[in-house]
Write a structure and sequence with these properties.
The strands form eight sheets. A six-stranded antiparallel beta barrel has the order 3-4-5-10-9-8. A six-stranded antiparallel β-barrel has the order 11-12-13-16-15-14. The protein has a six-stranded antiparallel β-barrel with strand order 17-18-19-22-21-20. The two termini are 59 Å apart. The chain has nine helices and 38 strands. It has 750 residues and is mostly beta strands. Among the domains are: 251 residues, Thrombin, subunit H, CATH 2.40.10; 80 residues, Trypsin-like serine proteases (Thrombin, subunit H, Beta Barrel), CATH 2.40.10.10; 148 residues, Thrombin, subunit H, CATH 2.40.10. The chain is elongated and about 110 Å long. The structure holds arginine (ARG). The site of arginine has 15 residues, from strand 15.
């Protein structure tokens, strides 16, 4: 809804609707005095997916101003009467004072001098007494003008349908308005009236579409007195600011107003057509309000009544499926775009609509020439799958934060000629800002930017998305609350099956594609500078949805397709990371951790291919393990070692392997952080060598290891906690130098 103003009530006119949901009590054959013509416009010729109207095409369209600006649309139905939507005038259940509103008639562009337009004050606003909220219907209002409009070619009334009037499903009608051109994307200057062709949908079809889970998993009950118009696939619709405006259909050379723009779920979304107030339903109510006013609105008899009363010709319930994000198999991405800029390596991006490719802005920024991108777009080419020739580039639009914020390292390239979408090329789906990729979602990598050549045949890493908690606390904002499902996350962490990779793909650039119901979304771009730390984290793309749709006017932003959050989907996300998380969160453990991250610092240290030791991640580059496990007795040469992170306990150890060393001893502080207190001494499961005495050695070696404040001894929960075995004291006297630090970065490059 367009209004959020709170205003005192001065005039309140609410009247009942006699027989609102039945046919009019008036005789359908009763004719109007033919003193006023209606529904005629100059022969000529947003609303979402619409275009500029020609001046004079829709002479009944008015703009309703409040507080100096356009708020809603309306239609002139008689010289002194404007029809609009009730919700435009209601704040918290009260009607706003008529005196605060003005009606602009005969306007085309709302920028600059309103040539030929004139304004009228509003004497009264009338709303049906049973109007409460848009979803419950009766969303209509009548505005009585303080003085009659002056009619002319640009200002004429529309015809109103009688209650018996039948608009045939499938009829192409037109909606008009100065509303947003996409969700949260206002009509740009010069604010020219937009028009869009919409098809009338039968009630059953509309109900079928609205019964599909859509934005926010919501469904809607279509009620009598409502009318739907649009397309199952979306993309053309009315939007915020169009409310109150007319939906008109031509019959016998006159335009009849079938609907009043009322509401929708989002704008132009798939399976979410616009919902209008069915004007015919309210014939009796309208007649009653305007009674005695001459000349009044005109309700001509329907020119040609449809043959059979169109009792909903049992339309089949065909919902629209996403047009984006379908791939024949993982890796064969039909949206993969290669941008060729002469003199540099190809840059990988993704096709997001018929005309636009999304790619990292860093591909096109010259490091030397202070961020100004090259302008010789003539020589640029874009290679798309299954296209015989390279596409040419018309325009490059960089994200405004591209040069200083890695999470916004994005640019959009417009192709000179839009491509025909088919199986390939086909755009990838983009997530709306509120998209929640469920933990456990299946994700894959795709090349992004000037990455290294692909990792080889096994390179298409498959991953499961981790829950947000750990990912957030490890990579997110210090002390910040973990974003709830539905709030944009700060990072997306896929957990890889490392075996597939074989090596660390540190220097490559990748994007993260995540799948829902067989549809691929571009979920994340390039990983955080995390070295080889696991889990990887990607910058979420969803925060950029509004920018991408604003620039492209038609990128495929698709609603979430999977909603089953499971039992712990919500609760585990509602926490705050401990404030002492500094370079990342040490000692944090997700409450209900997915398998494999029960102890996220736990590492598997595979030694010389024949034993597995327990390791503890101390810092992004360092793992601590027990010397006795890593080194063979008497030997000082370091064997071949591989370290696996983020999976301890998740996957069975390789055939015949057992953890050689016992798990370490961890104690929890009152703040909830886990502190490493001891490492098991050789051959024991109960006796631990204390870490405390090794603090100096560890901190000298590992600059960035985290020690809790009271140096040397972690501060224990006061009042006695049973978390730590009392015989800990025994352990503190155990032999020194039982710890072996592994420098991860060396290992990983091998
Ligand atoms: N309620 C909106 C307004 O106040 C109109 C929304 C129409 N939405 C739609 N998806 N058709 O302007």
């Amino acid at each position: 809804m367009a209004r959020h103003l709170l205003l005192p009530v001065v005039m309140l006119v609410i009247s009942p609707i006699p027989g609102a949901f039945q046919d009019s009590a008036l005789s359908p054959t009763q004719e109007e005095p033919e003193d006023l013509d209606c529904g005629r416009s100059e022969p000529s010729a947003r609303i979402v997916g619409g275009s500029d109207a020609q001046p004079g095409t829709w002479p009944w369209q008015v703009s309703l101003h409040h507080g100096g600006g356009h708020i809603c649309g309306g239609s002139l139905i008689a010289p002194s009467w404007v029809l609009s939507a009730a919700h435009c005038f209601m704040t918290n259940g009260t009607l706003e004072p008529a005196a605060e509103w003005s009606v602009l008639l005969g306007v085309h562009s709302q920028d600059g001098p309103l040539d030929g337009a004139h304004t009228r004050a509003v004497a009264a606003i009338v709303v049906p007494v049973n109007y409460s909220q848009v979803e419950l219907g009766a969303d209509l209002a009548l505005l009585h003008l303080a003085s009659p409009a002056s009619l002319g070619p640009a200002v004429r009334p529309v015809c109103l349908p009688r209650a018996s009037h039948r608009f045939v499903h499938g009829t192409a009608c037109w909606a008009t308005g100065w509303g947003d051109v996409q969700e949260a994307d206002p009509l740009p200057l010069p604010w020219v009236l937009q028009e869009v062709e919409l098809r009338l949908l039968g009630e059953a079809t509309c109900q079928c579409l609205y019964s599909q889970p859509g934005p926010f998993n919501l469904t809607l009950q279509i009620l009598p007195g409502m009318l739907c118009a649009g397309y199952p696939e979306g993309r053309r619709d009315t939007c915020q600011g169009d409310s109150g405006g007319p939906l008109v259909c031509e019959e016998g050379g006159r335009w009849f107003q079938a609907g009043i723009t009322s509401f929708g779920f989002g704008c132009g979304r798939r399976n979410r057509p616009g919902v209008f107030t069915a004007v015919a339903t309210y014939e009796a109510w309208i007649r009653e309000q305007v009674m005695g006013s001459e000349p009044g609105p005109v309700f001509p008899t329907q020119p040609q009544k449809p043959q059979s009363d169109p009792q909903e010709p049992r339309e089949n319930c065909t919902i629209a499926l996403p047009e984006c994000g379908k791939a024949p198999r993982p890796g064969a991405w039909p949206w993969e775009a290669q941008v060729i800029v002469p003199g540099s390596r190809p840059c990988h991006g993704a096709l997001v609509s018929e005309s636009w490719v999304l790619a990292p802005a860093s591909c096109f920024l010259h490091p030397s020439s202070s961020d100004s991108p090259p302008r010789d777009l003539d020589a640029w080419r874009v290679l798309l799958p299954s296209r015989p020739r390279a596409e040419r580039v018309a325009r490059l639009v960089q994200h405004e934060n591209a040069s200083w914020d890695d999470a916004s390292d994005l640019a959009l390239l417009q192709l000179r000629t839009p491509v025909n979408l088919s199986a390939a090329p086909r755009p990838v789906c983009l997530p709306h800002p509120e998209h929640y990729f469920l933990p456990g979602s299946r994700c894959r990598l795709a090349r992004w930017g000037r990455g290294e050549p692909a990792l080889g045949p096994g390179a298409l890493l498959e991953a499961e998305l981790l829950g947000g908690w750990w990912c957030h606390c490890l990579y997110g904002r210090q002390g910040a609350a973990v974003p709830l499902p539905g709030d944009p996350p700060h990072a997306l962490c896929p957990a890889y099956q490392e075996e597939e990779a074989g090596h660390c793909w540190n220097d490559s650039h990748w994007s993260l594609l995540c799948q829902e119901e067989g549809t691929w979304f571009l979920a994340g771009i390039r990983d955080f500078p995390s070295g080889c730390l696991r889990p990887r984290a990607f910058f979420p793309v969803q925060t950029h949805g509004p920018w991408i749709s604003h620039v492209t006017q038609g990128a495929y932003l698709e609603d979430q397709l999977t909603w089953d959050w499971g039992p712990d989907g919500e609760e585990t996300e509602t926490q705050t990371c401990p404030p002492h998380t500094q370079h990342g969160a040490c000692g944090l453990r997700p409450e209900a951790a997915p398998v494999g991250v029960l102890w996220p610092w736990l590492a598997e240290v595979h030694v010389a291919g024949d034993r597995v030791c327990t390791g503890i991640l101390l810092a992004p580059g360092w793992v601590l393990a027990a010397t006795h496990c890593v080194l063979r007795p008497g030997s000082t040469t370091v064997p071949y070692i591989e370290v696996y992170l983020g999976r301890a306990g998740a996957s069975p150890l390789p055939q015949g392997h057992q953890m050689t060393s016992a798990p370490p001893l961890l104690c929890q502080t009152t703040e909830g952080s886990w502190v490493l207190v001891g490492m098991a001494v050789q051959g024991s499961r109960e006796l631990f060598a204390a870490i405390g005495p090794e603090e100096a050695w560890i901190s000298q070696t590992v600059g960035e290891a985290h020690f809790l404040p009271s140096s040397g001894s972690p501060h224990w929960p006061t009042g006695g906690s049973n978390l730590c075995p009392p015989e800990l004291a025994k352990a503190s006297g155990s032999p020194r130098a039982v710890h072996f630090l592994l420098l991860l970065t060396l290992l990983i490059q091998s």
